[in-house]
Amino acid sequence: MAADYLKLIDERRVREVLADLVRIPSVNPGFPGGHGEKEVAAYVTRFFERLGLPVDVQTVEPDRDNVIGTMAGSADLHLLWEAHMDTVQTSGMTVDPFGAEVRDGKLYGRGACDTKASLAAMLVALETMAERRLVPAATIHLAAVVDEEITYKGVSALAERIRRGELRCDAAIVGEPTQLHAIIAHKGVLRFRIEVTGAAAHSSTPEKGVNAIECMADVIAYLKRYAGERFAAQRHPLTGPPTLCISRIEGGVAPNTVAERCSISVDIRTAPGQEWEDVWTDVRERLAGLEPELPAGATITVHRPFLTDYAMEVAPDDPLVLAVMEAANAYAPDRQAIGAPYCSDASKLTRVSVPTLVFGPGDIAEAHTAGEWVELAEVVRAAAVFVHTAMHFAGRAEQE
Ligand SMILES: [Zn+2]
User: How far is the CA of 36 from the centre of ligand 1 (A)?
Assistant: First the structure.
């Protein structure tokens, strides 16, 4: 019977640390008026220093540092805990974004749920082990990283360090609101533009032009049929099938002119196992095959994606998954290993061969909302899960 680490977690400290983090604005600078992560990074650095842990600062961009604290373990094994420090914008919020107000056991504010709750749980877990002189089984690296909400620069820099062998990492937990379930597979994404060019003419004589909007209607119908047939066959048991969404359309210049141009934005969510390059190439080749079926003079251009991210998965019987599931269920019943449609930092770590899952307190439905909150009791349980995992994770070393 494993120790009950929940008893060791100081609820008051969880509330304090989370409130501290929420009160420090860290809106991603990619959003209008964004503050950046600098002050949160300074807070996390001081936190590690106060615990006497070595701190490694990785500058990603000027004033944007990943902060990595390390607590040595007894086994020859390194476990990464990763959480992003940035948040989305605060416009339209109905609660004080930086007030950290507590009502009915919930703490409110921007980032409370996504993902300062995870970061607070990790920090308090380390503090609890340091103060109780508990030596974790695995060496723990806690990486607080920049820029998850926009372009993943923080985790990408961290992954590059792992790839080059400068930071050893045998497994990783990425903190995001999962309600203490373990996300062991999530989708990837690619977004790209498709443009149809035709020929303008007066709208009273449409036969003299080539209507790009009407051609695009054929392209869209083709894409929906393509996705319906092809993606259904690529269903992943945990994430479901890939999806396709036409998210923008623009075309035409005037009500009395045959449209010479029309363009759409396509958002495709890939399932684990699919590479965005393959999906994009397939769409491009098929639309090249459709072009001769359009009116003469119409051309289809499939542009390179302007945004991509990888899907990820980790085996359900991976030692990391088993360890986190055991820990989660010790403090919160009926937690499961599940899939998710959204992207996270995790896929950048699985790309450098680190088995990774996503886990943390809070509900993803609360992320980015006008009244963002997290239940404090769940953050406390998350801290216990992190301690439990650190104390018991034996990873692959035990099996080999
Ligand atoms: Zn997040």
Answer: 15
**Ligand 1 centre distance from Cα of residue 210 (Å):** 46
Q: What residue ranges do the domains of the chain occupy?
A: 5-186+311-399, 188-309
CATH class of the region 5-186+311-399: alpha beta
Distance CA 363, CA 88 (A): 16
Helix (H) or strand (E) holding 258: none
Q: Is 153 left (phi over 0), alpha (psi -120 to 50) or beta?
A: alpha
The pLDDT tens digits of the residues spanning 84-129 come to 999 999 999 999 999 999 999 999 999 999 999 999 999 999 999 9
- The one-letter amino acid code at 189 reads V
Over the stretch 292-314, which tens digit does the pLDDT of each residue have? 999 999 999 999 999 999 999 99
pLDDT exceeds cutoff 70 at 255: yes
Rounded distance from Cα 26 to ligand 1 centre (Å): 13
Ion ligand 1 contact residues with beta carbon within 5 A: 114-115, 176
CA 84–ligand 1 middle distance (angstroms)? 7
Report pLDDT digits (tens) over 2-20.
579 999 999 999 999 999 9
C-alpha 10 – ligand 1 centre gap (Å): 25
Cα 263 from Cα 182, distance rounded (Å) = 39
**Residue 81 CA, ligand 1 centroid: distance in Å:** 14
CA 12 – ligand 1 centroid, Å = 24
* Distance between CA atoms of residues 120 and 106, nearest Å: 14
Measure 89 CA to ligand 1 centroid, in angstroms.
13
> Nearest CA to 88 among 32, 43, 159?
32
CATH of 188-309, one of 3.30.230.10, 3.30.70.360, 3.40.50.720, 1.10.600.10: 3.30.70.360
Q: How far does the centroid of ligand 1 lie from the alpha carbon of residue 136, in Å?
A: 26
